């Protein structure tokens, strides 16, 4: 995910939280004012484990794996779960990006999935493993959830 000091993996943020370390601020999108802001992380946790994921690919080079219910901010309808995304939907982010494909991924072994809570905006920006940094997209955290638009 994109923090004020660079890219940090969610797994590392969760380990930092467990250790009691200070967490970096994250880049977030203030929908009310239509601008990018830096916000505090209130907490990070392992939300569970799963072997069933979706892979969301964008024309901006993003390849993001997430749970089917993880919400993305779209320009068309606001918040939409990954399982609702379709080719051509515009993802809100730090660049132009449209969904190219959403594919089911079934892994041999369950992997941990993480979540976090961001102060005020309840969203954060993600990118894939250091590539696509010019096109991070906005996703929603699970706590403090705003009513769904999509």
Please explain how this structure is put together.
The protein has one domain (2-140): Hedgehog/Intein (Hint) domain (Endonuclease - Pi-scei, Chain A, domain 1), CATH 2.170.16. It is mostly beta strands and 150 residues long. Strand 3 (26-30) and strand 4 form a beta hairpin. It is 7% helix and 48% strand. It starts with a strand and ends in a 10-residue tail after the last strand.
Provide a compact summary of the structure.
Helix content is 7%, strand content 48%. With 150 residues, the chain is mainly beta. Strands 6-5-9 form a three-stranded antiparallel β-sheet, covered by helices on one side. Strands 1-2 form a two-stranded antiparallel sheet.
Protein traits:
48% strand; two-stranded antiparallel ribbon; 7% helix; mainly beta; single chain; 11 strands; globular; disordered C terminus; Endonuclease - Pi-scei, Chain A, domain 1; 150 residues
| Name of the top-level CATH class | Mainly Beta
Strand content: over 45%
Unreliable segments (pLDDT under 50, ≥5 consecutive)?
144-150
Find the CATH topology: Endonuclease - Pi-scei, Chain A, domain 1
Shape: globular
Sheet with the most strands: spatial strand order: 6-5-9
CATH superfamily: Hedgehog/Intein (Hint) domain
The averaged pLDDT comes out at 88
């Amino acid at each position: 995910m994109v923090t004020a000091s660079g890219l940090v993996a969610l797994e590392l943020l969760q380990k930092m939280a467990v250790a009691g370390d200070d967490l970096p601020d994250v880049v977030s999108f203030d929908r009310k004012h239509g601008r990018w802001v830096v916000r505090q992380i209130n907490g990070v946790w392992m939300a569970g484990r799963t072997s069933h994921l979706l892979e969301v690919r964008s024309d901006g080079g993003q390849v993001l794996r997430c749970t089917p219910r993880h919400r993305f901010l779209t320009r068309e309808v606001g918040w939409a779960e990954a399982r609702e995304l379709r080719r051509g939907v515009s993802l809100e982010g730090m660049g132009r990006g449209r969904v190219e494909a959403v594919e089911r991924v079934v892994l041999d072994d369950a992997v941990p999935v993480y979540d976090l809570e961001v102060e005020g905006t309840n969203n954060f920006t993600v990118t894939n493993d250091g590539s696509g940094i010019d096109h991070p997209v906005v996703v929603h955290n699970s706590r403090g959830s705003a009513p769904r638009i999509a």
